[in-house]
Amino acid sequence: MEVIKDLHLDGQLSDKTILITGATSAVGLGVATAKALHTTGARILITARTREQADAAIATCSSNTPATQPIEAILMDLADFSTIRCGVEDFLTKSKTLNVLINNAGVMYTAEGRTKEGFETAIGVNHFAHFYLFQLLKATLLSSSTPSSHSRVVNVASSAHRYAPLDFDNLDSNKGGYNKSFAYGQSKTANIYMAHSIETHYGDKGLHGLSAYPGTILTTEMFRHLVPEDYALFGDMDSWKKICKTADQGAATIVWAGLAPDMEGKGALYLADVGIGGLHSEDEGPGGPGYSPHAYDGELTEKLWKYSYEAVGVKDQ
């Protein structure tokens, strides 16, 4: 909310449309982001797996948030591409424009599993589903861009990317047995690469990709799959708790990425702490705002972009 106030955007964006994936948990980043963005007067749409989730999230996002346009829900399950297609069809009946797409939904440290299309769950939901969603909405994002206000795609990133460079020989994260920590980290590296590729391929057409790292937030439902053994891998939890943010504090960087005039016409940037992140330093400790050098590996970024087209069955135009 402070970001909206500082940018003087209260009630100023009634001509904009914003779609946020995964805005259903009352304590999650998606709801915190939607609630803040709703105060701008923009048309806000969120995705949810069920109508019950959607209704509860809308009630939470709309509470104490005066706005002329009610928040709307699009039903889709990112583990099932058929529901993504149906969700996009529903979206396009509701809106002919899309100015900001915030890819927030995700899973973390899940047990080994597969999406309906056969992808390992973490990279399937966190990356391939969002890549597919982007492809279905790309034309709308491009047509909604104007010379004075370009369209944006914001991928929610994680410091976990630092521990998992993309390995095309291990996209299932099962070398030597399934490694859910590597699976999550690799999927977040993929999120960063996708944002960079959007900038590379569409930046000159008025569509930009950004990665936004919200910080460490231990209170969201992203941690619901973790067991005590997983927390043991984090090391000293007291160190993590010292840098832990609330969902509102984490959402601030996402909101800034989507709306800040400073980011107009810019992309392929890793954002953290409501600013442009720098290279990771060991001094910053776990969960810090810096990015790993492999986050800007141009060769792997382009390789994933081309691979993703084939993987999701969409033709690169």
Q: Could you characterize the architecture of this molecule?
A:
The chain has 317 residues and is of the alpha/beta class. It is 41% helix and 11% strand. It has a seven-stranded parallel β-sheet with strand order 3-2-1-4-5-6-7, sandwiched between helices. β2 (43-48), α3 (51-62) and β3 (72-75) form a beta-alpha-beta unit. α6 (180-202) packs across α10.
Core attributes:
317 residues, alpha/beta, Rossmann fold, 7-stranded parallel sheet, 10 helices, 7 strands, globular
Helix content: 40-55%
CATH fold node name: Rossmann fold
Low-confidence stretches: none
What is the level-2 CATH architecture name?
3-Layer(aba) Sandwich
Structural class: alpha/beta
Query: What is the 3D form?
Result: globular
Brief summary of the model shown:
The protein is of the alpha/beta class and 317 residues long.
Question: What is this structure's SSE topology?
Answer:
Layout: H1 2-6, E1 17-20, H2 29-38, E2 43-48, H3 51-62, E3 72-75, H4 81-94, E4 100-103, H5 121-144, E5 151-156, H6 180-202, E6 207-213, H7 228-233, H8 237-243, H9 247-259, E7 269-272, H10 298-312
Parallel strand pairs: 1-2, 1-4, 2-3, 4-5, 5-6, 6-7
Helix pairs in contact: 2-3, 2-9, 4-5, 5-6, 5-10, 6-10
